[in-house]
Specification:
Layout: E1 10-20, E2 26-35, E3 38-49, H1 51-66, E4 71-82, H2 87-94, E5 103-107, H3 111-117
Parallel strand pairs: 3-4, 4-5
Antiparallel strand pairs: 1-2, 2-3
Helix pairs in contact: 1-2
Length: about 150
């Protein structure tokens, strides 16, 4: 089973998390899937990630790791900004999934953020992942980092 291929999987948990408040806040949608006896989590990260948001993201992803989730799909297509000081915390949060049976797939990062975050890349960013309830970003909208 390819990590991003969730066809036939059933959602066993879905929750929206507010990671930080304000005009430049951040949020995540966590969906836990089960397919063929394996658990896969898809986390859609959006907004502006500062240190507070990175800390809350770390706690949420640590909870998934503690539940022995077999793989993590991190959808960053709606990520707008990452504070450079939060990069180490974000990287440590997803690191345990690189050793899991299904691993880590990071989708939707611009080349600049992919380079900055040094995350394992799960393949082609255009690979199909089941649609999330959030609308796709408007044409021309891209994330950036200062």
């Amino acid at each position: 089973m390819a990590l991003a291929d969730l066809g036939g999987a059933r959602i066993t948990l879905a929750i929206n998390l507010e990671l930080s408040h304000g005009r430049h806040g951040a949020a995540a949608r966590v969906e836990l899937f089960e397919r063929a006896g394996k658990q896969v989590a898809r986390v859609g990260l959006r907004g502006w990630v500062d240190d507070v948001a990175a800390g809350r993201f770390d706690r949420a992803v640590s909870d998934l790791a503690a539940r022995h989730v077999d793989g993590l799909i991190l959808d960053c297509s709606r990520l707008r900004h990452v504070d450079p000081r939060s990069v180490p915390r974000l990287t440590r949060a997803v690191a345990p999934f690189t050793a899991r049976p299904l691993g880590l797939a990071v989708l939707g990062l611009s080349p600049r953020l992919r380079e900055r975050l040094h995350w394992a890349h799960g393949g082609d960013d255009d690979r199909a992942v089941p649609a999330s309830p959030d609308p796709a970003p408007a044409a021309g909208e891209r994330e950036w980092a200062s």
